[in-house]
Structures are given as structure tokens and as C-alpha cells.
Known about the structure:
By secondary structure, this protein is of the alpha/beta class. It has two domains: 6-68 and 185-272; 90-182, no CATH class. It has nine helices and six strands; from the N terminus they run E-E-E-H-E-H-H-H-H-E-E-H-H-H-H. It has helices spanning 46-55, 90-100, 110-114, 146-153, 170-183, 208-214, 227-236, 250-265, 279-284; strands at residues 6-11, 24-29, 36-37, 61-66, 190-191, 202-205. Strands 3-2-1-4-6-5 form a six-stranded mixed beta sheet.
Amino acid sequence: MARFSHFLAIDWSGAKGPRxxxxxxxxxxxxxxxxxxxxxxxxWGREDVLAVLAEDLPGDTLVGVDLGIALPHVDCGAxxxxxxxxxxxxxxxWSVIDDVCRSEPHLGAQPxxxxxxxxxxFRDGIETGRFFGCDNAAHGxxxxxxxxxxxxxxxxxxxxxxxxxxxxxxxxxSLTGMRMLNRLRGRLPVWPVDPLPGEGSALxxxxxxxxxxxxxxxxxxxxxxxxxxxxxxxxxxxxxxVSGAGPLDDHASDALLSAAWLRKVAGDPSRWQPSGLTKxxxxxxxxxxxxx
Length: 292
């Protein structure tokens, strides 16, 4: 795992439009130095990120993307219990989502959310679909993957990828991300859905709050909105400070801290062997890197 030469962290967004203000990219070099933002003059769009990951990654880069790489499966034995078609694993799920949304530009996911076969599984602010929960759920935040249940035990506050409401509407960002993952199939392995290759680049799901917690912040204070806050967290991770002072966009700070965190922890074998991860979970639900 220490073989990676670069660590690219991506704060993702499910917002509409050709470009998303919530997307930020930061990269850290394995040899040291502070992480740096990867700037794009007109701002980043999801298709721009796809192009970088498909065609322009430095060799041996570990990519961490802040999105859910799959939907819950283990809790109910299916992504969409009662649906007429069996979707056996995460790659098949990505393909279905991308196909349903093929007419939607900018890797948008609205057609999937409006599809009569799938809408009843989501909470969209207008109604809560009758399949939003599951008999096995012990809370009202919707269905969890195994990794999200583990995150809650670590002090995080995860929400279901079937949730489309409020600040915790992680569903849209995850669905748009799954369209991207489908386009990257065969080009960039996605751990743990795919085995971690012995060489070359790979992509993992990250949760930026985990990086903040390991830098000494609480889940409720995970967002950093100044260079001073960011650099205190960078120091806690053993990373040099980022140049700057005063206010800082929290998407940029999430990406910068996560790049430094990936560099710090990627060489730890325990991160790649979490106790709750089974072969079945890896193939269907995936896992959030760093969740133990």
C-alpha cells in the first residue's frame, strides 16, 4: 500500500448543472510537502473529473472520492427489495443507473430518482418512499450499508444513500458518482469492489469527516472554514501547512485535509482489512476507506 506516489482527494457534488461549486480536488505527493488544490479556471464539473481519472492521473495514484460507491444491500438482501430485476452487485448497479440516466447531461441522476421503479426507495422532500426504510433499520435515517453502521460506531453521523433531503442529502452525489464509476470500468479499479492491484492507480470511497476526526476534530466540527483551522488539523496529521490565511471554502479544506490523511494512512494494512468487510459486502456495498 505504501507504493502509491500521489494521493488525490475529491470532494464531490450531486448538484445540477455543467459545473458544481461543491467539487474540489487536492493532491499530496508521497515524498512530502503540503497538499495542493488542483485548480481549474472555470471550475470543476463531474465530466471534467471523469476525464482526469480516465486519462490524466499521475502513475500510482490513490484516489479518494467523497461519495457512496453503492447502495445498501446486506440489510434487506437486495438493493431494491421487491424489484422485478435482480441487480447482483455494485458494477451491475452502476450500469443500471447510468443506463436509466443516459439522456441526462453532466452525469446527472434525476431520471433515476423519478423512475417509477426506483422512486419508492428514496426520500425526496416531497414524499418518503414506502421502501425508504427496512425492517432491519434501528433508526429513522433510512437504510445503511455495513460501512455506515461501522461509521456510526466510530462517532460519525452517516446518512442513507437513499436520502435526498437537507444537508445530509448524500443520495444525489452518490448516484452521480456511480455513473462516473460505470464510465471508469476497466480503467480504474474501485476498492474493495475490485481487488487492490499490486501496481497502478486505484480509487476508494472516502468520508471527509473521518479525516477530520483523525486530525482531532469531532464529527460536529468536521468542517473547517479557515486556513488556520485547516492547518491545525494538517499539523495533527503530520503534514506541512497550506499557504494562506483567513477564510477558506470548506470544500477546498475537505479535499486538502483528506489528501494529507490518505498519504498518512494508506500504508497501514489495517485500513485495507476492516473487520466488518466480507467478500459479499465488498462486491455489493463496497466500503469506506478508513472505516474500521
